[in-house]
Write a structure and sequence with these properties.
Length: 276
Amino acid sequence: MELTDGELLTLEEAYKTLENPSLAIRVSSAVGMPVEAVARELGKRAPDAVVEAVSKSAHKAIEYVLLSSMRSMGSGQVPASPRLHTAAAMTTGAVSGFFGIGTLIVELPLTTGIMFRSIADIARAEGESLDDPDTVLNCMQVFAMGSGRSDKDDAAESTYYGVRLALGKAAQDALQYVAAQGVGSASAPVLVRLIASLANRFGIVVTQKAMAQTIPVIGAVGGGLINTMFISHFQDMARGHFAVRRLERKYGAEPVQDAYSQLQIVTQDDGTEPVE
């Protein structure tokens, strides 16, 4: 079987989203600043206080959401609509924007929990079972996508399939542990490794979010606006990721990855550069 024209178009749209994420473009459109200026602001070295706050907050957020989501599997809860998720994230962001970076360690786990429900909603729409621990872990992996290249990555590890490969063993070990032992606590070594891997990549986008909230034209009121763009960013990552997963369930992982790689070759050949 070969992918249909419609499925190839779906894969192409997923490719464009997953390989060219940019919070800078969203901020630029929202505040009317040139994208180059926004990218320059977001790319500035974050102050030590921001780096420390982001590191602690990202780790706490990922740990909280991973454990709570695993424990709530099969609860029968129906996720809210994406609009409600976005509105809720906007509210928490407005509070954070008003009170400053010191509130991040409280605000971020709440926002991340809201985003997780939205990501899970998207996964379910693409045919995933929310009672399956593998689905939950794939929802968590969305937080590691679209972060761009970290200073610990080589070029391959910043691509969509590169991120999946980099996280693969940690996610698989965590899946086997949960299946055998239950969730337990975050102190289990396999969960510690997975949480650290996710938090490191998630923290890249969180740092951009924190830096965006310091841009003068955004101000305190802009905290809600930034959170709206923040959740929209990960909703897009989820739509791309679970569209690819849906095709992989139908055709197998290898044919879909081969078709995805062909899109990458075409993009490189026509000189198109990913957006940073």
